[in-house]
Each structure stands twice: as C-alpha cells, then as structure tokens.
Amino acid sequence: MTTVRLPLFPLNSVLFPGLVLPLNVFEERYRAMMRELLKTPDDEPRRFAVVAIRDGHEVAPSAPGMPDPTALPRRGPAAGFGPEPIKSFHSTACVADAATIRERTDGTFEVLATGTTRVRLLSVDARGPFLTAELEELPEDQGDEAGALAEGVLRAFRQYQKRLAGARERSLSTGADLPDEPSVVSYLVAAAMMLDTPTKQRLLQAPDTASRLRDELKLLRAETSIIRSLPSLPAADLTRTPTSLN
To answer: Which segments does the entry list as coiled coil (predicted)?
Structure first.
C-alpha cells in the first residue's frame, strides 16, 4: 500500500484527474498552505489533495456564531469541519499539482492546479497551520469493456452537449477535441456534466473505469431526455463553471 502525507484543501466541489482547477486563495489557513508549497523546489511537483466536503463549510464563518450572536467563530485549520474533520469529508479525493502559485500584493494567492491521481483519506491532522492528510493512492483499473463503453459515452456526450448548447448554438466541443482513452473520457465527462456534488463524487470513487462509464451513460441519457423536455432551459449559463473562492 502506497501512502503519502499532503496538505488537504477541502472544497464544495469534486476534482478529477486531468482536470484544471483555478483557485482564489484568501483564507489564512490556505494562504499558509500555499506559502509552504512555494518552498518546494521549482523542479519538484507542488502537490496537495483536494477533497469534497460532505458536511461543513468551505470558508470559515467570519461573523459571530449562531444561535448565540455573541459567540466568536471558530478559527484554525479545522474551522467549519467539527471536532473530527475527517467525518466532514468524502473518503475519496484527488491529488492536485499546482503549476502556478502567484501571490498578490494583499497576501492572497492565485493558483492554477491540475488533478493527477485519486487517493483515499486514511487520516486528517489538524495540528498545524493547515490540514494535512495521510492518503492511500488508488489504482485506476479499466474493468470489462471499457473501450466500447467509452465510445458509447462519447456519442451520448455529444448529444448531451448539443442539447445543452441549444439548437441554435454551436456544440460545446467538436469530435476532434474529445479523447479516446477510456479513463480520460470517463473523467472528462464526469467533470463536464451538470451534476450535483454527491453524483460527481460517486463517479470519482467508482471502482473502475468501466463502472464509471456505465454510470455516465445512464446519466447522460437521463439528462439529455430532461433537457429535451425543457427547451427554455438557460443552458448557456449552466455551461459556465465559476472559479472556486477557496
């Protein structure tokens, strides 16, 4: 079992391997994390783990607490995640490699990272200035019939794109833009579909590529059917993914 300890960045969203993650880092605990990552030599990866929040708050409260309006908000690396932070997170996360960490004049950071590898959370440590986690690397097995499933998913995804973009709009992507490697297809489609966080998390933690693709095929058919029956859906707005605010 290969394990590693990395800084932990909880978000109200799911990161998939191969996908780009822009971050606007302004909270002190995450600023401390970026300052630590900047100590890594330029020729080495600046890695941290991104985990989706199951129960808690991405940004710690900055106003007096509720129901007591005079209570001060909790501060520190685990603020917003309770006394046992690991219970607030999903068990499967994604390692991110920060290609760019740019500090602004006000001390906040602009970060651009890319997901690399799926990992399982084994433990979370809140004793430092930011959360760290012991992580077990998860293999990406292809499973049965992954290649054929990937072809079916790509066909269904193109139909989904056309419906989402609208009959008078251009497709969001052309066939030349789409990959054909099954695991890459599965992650791209999982990230691109308009799904809630629990569903995206389910796709991230699928036992193998084929299982993820089968799930996506069902979701694509269902979502395309829904969009077809809702011609007034503001699809252009749905296709915009906002930058995470940390």
So the answer is: none
**Across 204-215, average pLDDT:** 98
DSSP three-state, residue 217? helix
- Give the ranges where 111-206 is alpha helix by DSSP (H): 146-165, 182-192, 197-204
Query: Residue 67, preceding bond cis, omega within 30 degrees?
Result: yes
Architecture of the domain spanning 146-229: Up-down Bundle (1.20)
Q: How far apart are CA 127 and CA 217, in angstroms?
A: 43
Q: Alpha carbon 96 to chain centroid distance?
A: 9
Crossing angle for the helix pair 197-204 and 182-192, to the nearest 10 degrees: 170
Tell me phi and psi for residue 20, to 5 degrees.
-90, 140
Q: Distance between alpha carbon 157 and the CA centroid of its chain, in Å? A: 20
pTM: 0.82
- In this prediction, residue 100 carries a pLDDT of 96
Q: How confident is the model at residue 246 (pLDDT cuts 50, 70, 90)?
A: low
* Cα distance between residue 54 and residue 90, in whole Å: 6
Q: Specify the CATH number for 3-57+76-137; select among 2.60.120.260, 3.40.50.880, 3.40.50.300, 2.30.130.40.
A: 2.30.130.40
